[in-house]
Design a protein that fits this description.
In chain A, strand 2 and strand 3 (285-290) form a beta hairpin. Chain A has helices spanning 8-12, 16-46, 53-71, 74-83, 88-91, 94-112, 115-138, 141-164, 169-182, 194-202, 208-232, 247-261, 297-315, 332-346, 350-363, 377-384, 401-416, 425-437, 463-482, 486-491, 496-507, 516-524, 530-545; strands at 268-272, 278-282, 285-290. The first copy, chain A, is 63% helix and 3% strand. Chain A has a three-stranded mixed sheet. The first copy, chain A, has 23 helices and three strands. The A-B interface holds A 1-2, 28-29, 32-33, 35-36, 39-40, 43, 47-52, 54-56, 58-59, 61-63, 66, 69, 115-116, 119, 264-269, 281-282, 284-285 and B 1-2, 28-29, 32-33, 35-36, 39-40, 43, 47-52, 54-56, 58-59, 61-63, 66, 69, 115-116, 119, 264-269, 281-282, 284-285.
Chain lengths: 547, 547
């Protein structure tokens, strides 16, 4: 039955618990509907027949519209307003208080933007993606540039509304300070701090200032490390991972590993899609996909382990607060930390291959892979951990990857804050590529046109990939300190020990804290620290490349 | 953007076309949302991991609630009220007029029932299904009876509201006449005509009186035909369809046939599920499922062809009116006619097996099926067309099947109209089973507890199975008259000729007409005719059993 709107007088006579319960019911129903959207998207990538594409877009549109209606319902607003008048610390436990905080945050963020502006952005997305795809194909940046201009314009408007609406306090402060120091009057254009606002759409509560510091450190340390590796001009034998590997057998191996790591197939599915992802409608229904290429063994294995890491985060969410925001992942960076921790700290490690190589050999016993049979875990580890600076971010190894991200961060920040123009991007991109990785970009297809993010208005998203890497190293270090003999467990394939620790210390913590940095501080006693990441890479690759 | 409610004065100044367009937009959006429900249900049966069951129920609940809200929106009511004041035959073509008629019908049917009553029915369903499952397992009718009582009570209330609300004119007339002839006063209980109302939930516009006539004819003719076949005590050799048939090979064969018949895999999928069905979110996204049993070859083949028939109806819907009710299937009986036409008139025919047997032999060349290789189409046809009276409806052949349905029809009609009690069902069931099929039911598990329909309040549904059989025979007869050399086409595997004819004459007609009988009359020049069905069965089985 439709709950009729109550007057604020009526609400004020209700108990705090009753207000909370009403909020929870509404937010859970919204969550179910968002889950339905998740299933539609998964199905679209994995199952849907091609002729259904237009219909699916309509279905997604209708569901998104209903989600927006539910998320901005005035009743929700009244309940939130009333509950915040109560003594929250007396009435509610920390998880419940986090729910109230997060419900309020979502409500304000959803209501602060004019619907027309949101629709304008959504309409631009599909046009911009088409233009970008064509531009990339022809390596013709000019075809994409006008759409990026429009995105920047819309994004600036959105941030403007958010700052005005009081949902971006950090960005507001930066902007105010800049205005003051530049002596600007009201009405004068100034986009300082706007990147901070966009960053927080993906990495809640994280400060751009901290990010700057982390990225500057990384750049300072990784550029020389990469140069050193390059100068060594050495390559370990990797002939045994070359050749054709039957994709069915690859999938069997990867599925086995995913399940041994702890993916619960009673609460999720593993399928194949063109672009691997982890999605689906609920923590009890996690849909993870991967892809296998016949002549690229490493992609299928590391890709599956990566998505398994994401899936464990989802499947490990706090069921006590199921359907409520405190059980949700804290940020994209923390989510990525879970995939990267399993992919890199485990899946690219010596202990892991000491365990898994025998299984891989068992799986590929045919004569064409005879050379695999005599390989040692050490040799396999060396072959699986190669550093090769390249143009393409998604093909990058863990040493060069951060520089791909830093390059994008520097450009997109300067762009949104008005320090560079859209037209300047290709030349700036290429200069940075030369500086950071020593590469000459010959075509924009291999340069600033390679990623789809900017075409769908994702600015502020890229840093989360590298935040994820740093989180992963720091979290894994904490895990090693907390779990006696973790390496020995991994050597025996006893992954549950690590999974359990992550379940308790990361997954179940959900969005209890306000930022990834708060989570890391509580867990390790120190802020997110790029030195640990540099140390990890330096030690690892000094050994591999005998630097 | 939310369309704000308009006043009736505002609406009265709008053109008929504008009103129609607003209706169409709303109804299409509702259709997308219903399609989402279709995908959720398909996924639940085919893909969903087990732990997601409770969450899926919540997702379906939320989507159903939103569908109900959209379907009963007052704006829809105002638009419908206003448009019906216009000169429809001047302003709109017959398809558009059918849309207006059907939108109005749905709106009235959705709004006439109190929401509490609908929820009471839905809540009863899950409890009743559990009770039924337990009762069936233990063959203990008493455990299920109280739930059936409650269903009857709720269904009678629903029909009462519908008659009062003017959406069941035929039922109202029957009831009024009965009341008059019995000399009842207002307030006196009388449920005559109530079956008519329930029947029309599944077989729109069909008269119970006509159904009675058809079923009486069938009973009169089929009971002696079955007795004659039974007395013959003869069985054709079917050893070559016994044994174990690899399910993967069965699936390959069935998929090939489905695609040759015309299932468009670019606009649908074929998967496996425990209970075969055709569903999915849209005519451009038809999800059909089937099942294969290693030692029951016939089930997988006929089952796949059956679902292909349903799928062709869906995929063949009129795309010019996509998303609008005129493009929808006319009734469950007509839908079933399309599955049965392909399953029985084609898939169980000599011409079909003259074509398909060679493919089947190719598929099963292993030594264990050596005896299949020398079989002739005639022998195969005889083996595939056996008549065996049995207890279970879903395992019944085409000769005995109608009696299973007639038995249920007679019982459920007498029950809802108050002529028998719930407690009397088992004894009446068993007596009829003896009379119609000569069988002694020893356990209710094999008798009145075998079907799930009554447990979910489906009364009035069973007749559509047999209406489908009769429609199928009559439609196929028309096709044969219209398509020169149809049998020869089938012998060559040229199924597209028949598919095209059905596309034009049935599928694209959608819900343009008000009943299946109207469709049949326009197509064949005569009402639905059980004599044709009896004639078909008599001729076919007289030949097979040499009667």
């Amino acid at each position: 039955m439709t709950v009729l709107a109550k007057t604020s007088a009526e609400l004020s006579s209700e108990s705090a618990r009753s207000l909370y319960d009403q909020l929870a019911t509404r937010v859970k129903d919204l969550g179910y509907l968002q889950g339905v959207g998740g299933l539609l998207s998964w199905d679209q990538e994995v199952m849907m027949p091609p002729k259904a594409a237009d219909i699916r877009a309509e279905q997604l549109r209708v569901v998104a519209g209903l989600c927006h209606e539910a998320a901005t319902s005035p009743i929700l607003g009244s309940l939130l307003e009333e509950i915040q008048k109560r003594d929250l610390s007396k009435e509610f436990n920390p998880y419940e208080r986090a729910n109230i905080r997060l419900m309020n945050k979502s409500y304000r963020e959803e209501t602060v933007l004019p619907k027309e502006l949101v629709q304008e952005g959504a309409a631009l997305n599909s046009k911009a993606v088409n233009a970008w795809a064509e531009a990339r194909k022809e390596s013709n940046y000019a075809k994409f540039a006008p759409f990026l201009e429009q995105h920047i314009k819309i994004l600036r408007q959105k941030v403007g509304y958010k700052i005005q609406g009081g949902v971006c306090e950090e960005a507001r402060k930066i902007n105010e300070k800049a205005r003051a120091s530049l002596g600007l009057k009201e009405g004068d254009e100034c986009y300082k701090g706007y990147y901070q606002a966009l960053l927080n759409d993906y990495e809640s509560g994280f400060k751009d200032e901290q990010l700057q510091g982390l990225f500057a450190d990384l750049k300072q340390n990784l550029v020389p490390l990469i140069a050193k590796i390059k100068a060594k001009n050495f390559q370990h034998d990797d002939s045994f991972i070359q050749g054709n590997f039957d994709v069915k057998k690859q999938a069997e191996f990867s599925h086995r590993i995913a399940k041994e790591i702890g993916f619960d197939t009673d609460a999720g599915r593993l399928d194949v899609s063109t672009h691997p992802f982890t999605g689906g409608p609920d923590p009890l229904d996690v849909r993870m996909t991967t892809r296998y290429t016949v002549d690229y063994l490493q992609e299928g294995i590391t890709g599956t382990i990566h998505e398994t890491g994401h899936s464990l985060y989802e499947q490990g969410r706090n069921q006590e607060y199921a359907g409520l925001p405190v059980s949700q992942a804290l940020s994209l960076g923390v989510h990525e930390s879970q995939s990267l921790l399993w992919e890199r700290m485990v899946g690219l490690s010596k202990p892991f291959w000491t365990y898994a190589l025998a299984l891989l050999k068992e799986q590929f016993q045919d004569p064409s892979h005879e050379n695999l049979q005599s390989v040692t875990p050490e040799q396999f580890y060396n072959a699986f951990n190669q550093v090769k600076p390249g143009f393409i971010r998604i093909e990058a190894d863990e040493v060069t990857y951060p520089l791909h991200v830093i390059l994008r961060y520097e450009i997109e920040k300067a762009l949104i804050e008005g320090d560079i123009t859209v037209a300047e991007i290709p030349s700036i991109w290429n200069a940075k590529m030369k500086e950071y990785l020593g590469l000459d970009v010959t075509e924009d297809r291999l340069g600033c046109l390679q990623d789809t993010h900017w075409a769908v208005g994702l600015i502020g998203y890229f840093p989360t990939y590298t935040l994820g890497s740093i989180y992963a190293v720091q979290i894994f270090k904490a895990a090693k300190e907390a779990i006696p003999g973790l390496d020995e467990h991994l050597v025996k394939g006893e992954f549950h020990v690590l999974k359990k620790w992550l379940n308790e210390n990361i997954h179940k913590q959900g969005s209890l804290r306000e930022s990834g940095d708060d989570l890391i501080k509580d867990l390790t006693g120190r802020s997110l620290d790029s030195n640990l990441y540099v140390e990890y890479l330096t030690n690892k690759y000094t050994a591999i490349y005998d630097l």
